[in-house]
Amino acid sequence: MLATFVIGLREGLEAALIVGIIATFLRSNGRRLTPMWIGVTIAILISVAVGVVLRLVETTLPQAAQEGMETVIGAVAIVFVTGMVLWMATHARFMKRELESAAQDALGDGTSRALAVMAFLAVLKEGFETAVFLLATFQAASDTAAAAGGAVLGVFAAALIGIGIFRGGVRLNLGRFFKVTSAFLVLVAAGLVLTALRTAHEAHWLNAGQQRTIDLHWLAPNGSIRGALFTGVLGIPPDPRVVEVLGWLCYLVPMTLILFWPQHHRPGAAASRRIKVVAAGTCVVGAAVLFFAIPAASLQAPASAGLVDAGGQQVGTARLTGDSPPALVLTSGGTTSKVALSHPATESHAGLTTTRYVGHPKATGATPGTITLEQLIAMTGNKLPVGFDPTRNPGPFTAHWSRTATVDVWSYEHHLLDATGRRTQVVTLTGGGLTTPRTMSVTPSDGITAGTWSVAPSYVDRVGHAAQARDNTAAERDFWRHVVPAGLLIAAVALLAAALWSARSSSETSVTAKVPARSAA
Questions:
Q1: Residue 280 falls within a domain, yes or no?
Q2: pTM: predicted TM-score of the whole model, two decimal places
Q3: Mean pLDDT, to the nearest integer, of 86-102?
Q4: Can you tell me where the transmembrane regions are (predicted)?
């Protein structure tokens, strides 16, 4: 309530002062005040409509979109209050004189229309800023009704003070008033920085810097006056995160120095430009340090994967080569074979977006043209095949072989994620007492390419966990390695531009001062 009261009081008083000065000029020049009041009323209605529309739009959005809109509104409110505070810091003491001069110029056309438009635009500007600022403050407040009541009381108090100043019954040191309220509003705006960063995280826009820093529940317990002051007024949560604390400090410290550095210690124009250049250089160096010092996130996966057979027994290892496309290297019992992979296709596997390859390994091992009955029994698991009679089919048999082998490989960012292998071996027997050819499947027994195998499930889980950890680290490192340096570079450009603008203005002022001096000579 206190924050919204001060916002309403300050913004309302700015508008009231402008309207009061314009009304004084109109009345002293015998002009009607009706056009001015019409403009003021329309501006107030538009400002209220802006706030209502923004609120209605926000309530119709999904939760994540609402958090995103709150972030945008908070950022706009921070820009508004920062610009207002900085402008008033240099113009508060001369505001009345400047407005009177502008009003006198506006009356030069002989009508009051220009002053009515001036009043309309002034109230519209203050009203729009107030609507956005109050809406952002309402979102951060724990009691919306109390916050709204504080805003209404602030605007009402501003109107009363404005009427008192207009009638001459109230004398107010505007410079001191705006300086005191500026200090409070800077604290409120710093709290809005915290709130905007938190809603940005809840909108899934900012996932970095979310480590807890300090527990402030002891300082601002829920439901207490201190809690209402810190959380409701200043916007400081009881569990601030790293990025929130940095944002709060990066806003509060420079604004405090700019506004409240002692006047007799403030640097001159030349020194101010040098400070800006040094600050810009510091920002550039900081951006470079962050970019080069923070390594890019990488996937930490094992170099090779264990392979198991259909019974879960370890049968070898597998790894991918760095070729394009890669090849699958299989190792078992001291024997290594390489399988060429082809037909890459994107596919979701084990919860990850992978590249799937297909390979056809070459079958090894003997394919004898003649098989004895004992060899046949060994190939079929030490069991006599159904339909064979040792007395009528004593062998040996003539064998005709047919073998197929397929390997499926899933790669995630050039790392082996999963693989399976299948091999079938079919033999057709004739002779040896058989009256008709007999076709049957036999178990291959020639190394890792035999039978069915797959990557161990534990390895797949390890790669999945490593990918998740890498993604979490990537978001964190990308923020500190790219986003923060980009912000520092933007700040450096702004500081250099301000220094160049100041140098240009000083140069033009110097030239202007020399021209009259030469004319007088």
A1: no
A2: 0.65
A3: 67
A4: 38-57, 72-94, 115-138, 144-165, 177-197, 245-263, 275-294
